[in-house]
Amino acid sequence: MNNHNLFAALRAAFPTDSADLDTVAVETDSGLHYSWHDLERSTAMLANLLRSLHLPEGARIAVQVEKSVEAMLLYLATLRAGYVFVPLNTAYQHAEIEYFIGNAEPAVVVCASRNFGWVSKIAFKAGTQNVFTLDDDRSGSLLARAAHCSDQHEVAQRQADDLAAIIYTSGTTGRSKGAMLSHGNLLSNALVLKDYWGWQKDDVLIHALPIFHVHGLFVAIHGALLNGSKMIWLNKFDAHKVAENLPRATVFMGVPTLYVRLLAEPGLSADACRRMRLFISGSAPLLVDTFRQWQTRTGHTILERYGMSETIMLTSSPCRASQGFDRRGGTVGLALPGIKLRVQSDGGQPLPAGETGNIEVKGPNVFQGYWRMLEKTAEEFTLDGYFKTGDVGKLDADGYLTIVGRSKDLIISGGYNVYPAEIESWLNDMPGVAESAVVGVAHPDFGEVGVAVLVAKPGATLDATHIMAQLKSSLANFKIPKQCFVLDELPRNAMGKVQKNVLRERYKALFS
Ligand code: MCA
Ligand code: AMP
């Protein structure tokens, strides 16, 4: 293959026969149908629009829009035109967007029309020349402009290590880092999953995840497109709609919260799942209890996989009979083909099966580094080139990986990452707050949620409700701690370090 552009590989799987090109590639829950031909034409038009802007090589296209098929087409068009896609969570607010745009310096920003006022102000201030709007009802200036562009476009030539996307992943110091993923990273992983998960042309994927993170944007979309498989597209997860569509589908991907919510849906039954081939879970720990309940209720065993923004997918439970078909609840399966995975001691020594240590990985899927953070990138790799995931786990004698915790201070809430350090720095800046700690505790719906603990400055009185409201006006809603307590002091060890484990223990039953 001469052109390593990921889009070229995806398009190669589109039907070639003109009658098949008119078959449905994406069907939405609002009754819209997009044929393969539509995908081809509309990505060409959007790619031509981007090209007409005379952007520099490597230009970033930052996108904060509600989920829609058109938003996916914009992603594909960005690949097609050879630019770098920067998706941003729709929950991000002013300060967060200001940081991402300032850091990524995108040449193009696409936002929802209701946010145009404030987003364009930030973008123009940061030097962005083009700001378009795109809404989830197929309106906005992006599509209006693209409508005038040709539907013929030659896919831009790209090398395997040319950048395709930057995915912001929250930083341990409170600042997000942009994980740079190349066309080669994305394609190698998509090809491995195509084979490992046994994708077939007649598979039908229910796409119900957001498309601004790795799970919904890469794993799900690449999986379907690379195999010429149809997608049933939901702009927003809705357990009832998913259950309704199950009888027509074969593959579903979700974070554990989606499985928990589906289990509460009366329409979920073994009969509804009769055509289903694969239920895939990832992004956060799946409770063994959920895994078992799913088996009992549907007759299907969830396939668990583990990955990161920096690496895309790393491990998976076996999928087919030839792989042993042995999916073990509580584990995230085996290292995917071509991916080296090891568990090391803190001193950097390999640990035998059964012992818990730091998970490190190497492979063609591992990212190119953090955007404009050379030192940070270097810190996250070992001398022999393994990426330090920050996850702690153990391998069993058969190679199954169990994640037992994280060395990074991270809360995963409903599949979204929340870094306590970021929340604490906002809390600490609030009037009257002397110090704060944010810890993750178990939650029946989101798996884990944040709880904030505050200590007031001498003489100050803190109103937890008011503080949470203030936080809500500054940060994405999923980052807001679900409860807030004011204490006289934080528990500390002899070294003066805050004992978050003591706080976690104290609040562990808060939501049970
Ligand atoms: C919504 N809320 C949350 C979350 N989502 N709180 C904590 N954690 C969350 N994840 C809160 C909002 O703040 C709001 O609170 C209230 O719930 C309703 O918000 P809404 O947006 O309507 O919620 P929802 O539609 O019910 O969303 C729940 C969800 C969503 C469907 C589970 O969070 C979701 O789509 N999660 C999937 C995330 C994902 O795709 N992760 C993959 C990352 P209030 O009313 O108080 O404001 S990729 C990754 O991790 C790696 C690479 C991997 O391995 O895949
Ligand atoms: P992100 O930075 O958003 O890509 O999130 C990556 C993190 O999500 C990983 O480092 C893990 O801590 C976590 N994660 C992903 N998949 C799983 C899984 N199947 N089970 C447990 N944790 C997971």
Compact description:
The protein has 512 residues and is of the alpha/beta class.
List keywords for this structure.
512 residues, Rossmann fold, Luciferase, domain 3, GMP Synthetase, Chain A, domain 3, nine-stranded mixed beta sheet, four-stranded parallel beta sheet, 16 helices, binds adenosine monophosphate
Topology:
Elements: H1 6-12, H2 18-21, E1 24-28, E2 33-35, H3 36-52, E3 60-64, H4 69-81, E4 84-87, H5 94-104, E5 108-111, H6 116-125, E6 130-133, H7 141-146, E7 163-169, E8 177-182, H8 183-196, E9 204-207, H9 214-225, E10 230-233, H10 239-245, E11 251-254, H11 256-263, E12 278-281, H12 288-298, E13 303-308, E14 312-316, E15 334-335, E16 340-344, E17 357-362, H13 374-379, E18 387-395, E19 401-406, E20 411-413, E21 416-418, H14 420-428, E22 433-443, E23 447-456, H15 464-472, E24 483-487, H16 500-507
Parallel strand pairs: 1-10, 3-4, 3-5, 5-6, 9-10, 9-11, 11-12, 12-13, 23-24
Antiparallel strand pairs: 1-2, 7-8, 13-14, 14-15, 16-17, 17-18, 18-19, 20-21, 22-23
* Structural class determined from secondary elements: alpha/beta
User: What is the fold named in CATH at topology level of the domain at 6-15 and 31-185?
Assistant: Rossmann fold
Shape: globular
In CATH terms, the superfamily of the domain at 6-15 and 31-185 is: ANL, N-terminal domain
- What small molecules are bound in this structure? methylmalonyl-coenzyme A, adenosine monophosphate
Give the helix proportion (percent range): 25-40%
Number of strands: 24
**Which sequence of strands runs across the widest sheet?**
2-1-10-9-11-12-13-14-15
- The name of the CATH architecture of the domain at 6-15 and 31-185 is 3-Layer(aba) Sandwich
- State the end-to-end distance: 54 Å
